[in-house]
């Protein structure tokens, strides 16, 4: 099994990808926006997709979408073929596409809207935080893409404030601040231990 950044040689899997996404939506009974083979092919051609293959057999897929002139990116269409589920493949694909997104769009906020608890868990492990829809992209084209979802009426009735999906966001600027704070705290604790060790040594020498 290999999980790689997709290239033009993988366009032949576009139909399989779309059929698997649609079949999964029907089985789950939840909202997954439909995608056409042409749309998927464009993502592959632009180097904005990750594919999992078992030899020459399609096993899983996910792609990157760019919104708001590159201020936001989304990892969308995460799917694993039924024959390969329950093996941890979704997590491998998710990590690969997230890494690819961060490398290709280092300053962009990475967001996700999903109804799936496993995806929420994977997002959380990567540093995503739950947010309101108002903190996500205001690019109308993104929200227009939800029209093929069976829950679109919920989104429109609430003036795009909420839906059955949960919004999650990875903000690289906030993560950097958190990392710095963590480093600062670790440095403080280390300094404290050194001082305590020196104090104990000094007290021992007095005796």
Automatic annotation (TrEMBL):
Superkingdom of origin: Bacteria
GO molecular function per UniProt: acyltransferase activity, transferring groups other than amino-acyl groups
InterPro entries: Acyl_CoA_acyltransferase, GNAT_dom
Xref: CDD domains: NAT_SF
Keywords: Transferase
Stretches assigned to the N-acetyltransferase domain: 3-149
One Pfam family hit: Acetyltransf_1
This protein's record includes keyword Transferase: yes
Protein name: GNAT family N-acetyltransferase
Naturally occurring in which organism (per UniProt): Algibacter marinivivus
Source lineage: Bacteria, Pseudomonadati, Bacteroidota, Flavobacteriia, Flavobacteriales
